[in-house]
Design a protein that fits this description.
Layout lengths: L5 E6 L2 H9 L8 E4 L7 E2 L5 E2 L1 E2 L9 E4 L1 H4 L9 H7 L4 E3 L3 H18 L3 E3 L4 E5 L16 H18 L3 E6 L2 H7 L8 E3 L5 H5 L12 H9 L5 H5 L3 H8 L1 H11 L15 E12 L5 H22 L1 E12 L4 E12 L2 H12 L8 E13 L1
Parallel strand pairs: 2-7, 10-11
Antiparallel strand pairs: 1-9, 1-10, 2-6, 3-4, 5-7, 8-9, 12-15, 13-14, 13-15
Helix pairs in contact: 4-5, 10-11, 12-13
The structure holds a DNA duplex.
Length: about 375
Amino acid sequence: MRRRWIAHLDMDAFYASVELLRYPELVGQPVVIGGGRRHQPVPQADGTRRFSTLAGYTGRGVITTATYPARDLGVHSGMGLMKAAALAPQAVLLPVDFEQYRLYSRRFKAAVAEVAPVIENRGIDEIYIDLTDVPGAQDAVGHDGTGGVRAVAQEIRNTVKAATGLTCSIGVTPNKLLAKVASELDKPDGLTVLTAQDIPSRIWPLQVRRINGIGPKAGDRLHKLGIRTVGQLAAHPLAWLQEHFGKSYGRWLHNASHGQDDSPLVTHSEPVSMSRETTFERDLHAVRDRAALTGILDELVAELATDLQRKGYAGRTIGIKLRFDDFKTVTRDLTLPEPVSDAAAIRRAAGRCLTRVDLARRLRLLGVRAAGLVRL
DNA sequence: TCTGGGGTCCTTCCGCCA
DNA sequence: TCTGTGGCGGAAGGACCC
C-alpha cells in the first residue's frame, strides 16, 4: 500500500541566516533585519566592520527577521523597530537585501529538486515537497514504516546544507496541513515525521493559532468561545462550528482539527496581481502635500510599469490603495477595456480612482496595483 | 513611538441582464 | 408589464500568509 508523504521545508531565520554567511563575525549575536536602506555596515580602517544597532533607532518600519539570540530577547518579526529598540538596544540592525535572498532561494530549491522534483513554491523561504514517489520513501527500516521517508527527508536537509550553508526544518506527514505544523515542532534544524496516529498526542495539544489558516481574527473568536487548543476544536461537532463560523469555514476548521486535508500540491502558478506601495516617513495631507504625493504616485506607477514589462504582463484592472493616519485602508479599482502595462495609462487610471476617495484625513501609505493580468 | 511590502483568496454587494 | 430569480462581472473590503 503506497502512502502519501508530503514534506514542508522551512528555512531557519532565512534572511538573517543569509546575512550571517556574509558577516560571520555576527554568528551567535542578536541580529535583526529590517528598516530602510540606511544602516549599512561600515568597513573600518583595521579591516573589521562597524554595524548599526537598534539603540536610538527612530522612524517607521518593522522587523522582517530576527536571529534566534535576538528572539531570546523578546523581539520577533512584525514588531515595530522602535519597540524592538527598547527591548534589545544592543541588537545589530541590518537592512534587507532581497536580491541576495532570492539568490539563495533559487539555490536551495534547485538542491531539493535534485532529490525530489515535485515542489510547490510557498514564497521565498519555504516549499512543499511530494515525497510519495521518491525512491526509498515507501521503504520500512526494520519495524519502522516511516524509516524510508525519514531518510529521504534527511538527505534533502543534507543537500540544502551542502548547497547553501544554511539549515532548514522539515515536517513530513500525509498532507500539507499537517506538514506545515510539523515543520515547526523541532525548529531550528529539525526533522519531524508524523502519521495520522500521532495527531492526538502531537497536534491536539497545540494552540489553534499554529494551524495555517487560523489567523488573529479567527484565533480571537475561538478564544472567546473557550477554544484554545486544536484538541478542543476537534471536540466540537461540525454543526456547532458551522453555526459559529459559517458553512465553508466551519467545515474547514473541523477538517483541520482532525488533521484532514486533501489539497494537492500546486506546482505551477501564474501571478494574479502585481503592486507597489510605500509608507511615508511622515503622514501627508492631500492638499498641503499635494506635490509630494503626486511625485510618490508617479514613482510607484513607474516601478509597477517596469515590473509588469520586465515580467511580460499587462493588467486590465488598475487599483489604488490608501491608508489614512488612523490606519483605515481603502481601495479603488477601475477595469479598463484593454490590458495596459505602460506608466501613462496606469497613471491615468490611478488618477481616476483617486477622484473617488474622500481625502480629508492625512495619509500614511499609498499603493498602486495591476490585476487581471494577461501575458504579453 | 504603534502597526512594511508583496501577495492570494474569499465574501458581500451592486448593477445589469436574461 | 410586473415581480422574482439567478448568473455574472466588477468593486470593495477583509483575513491570512511570507
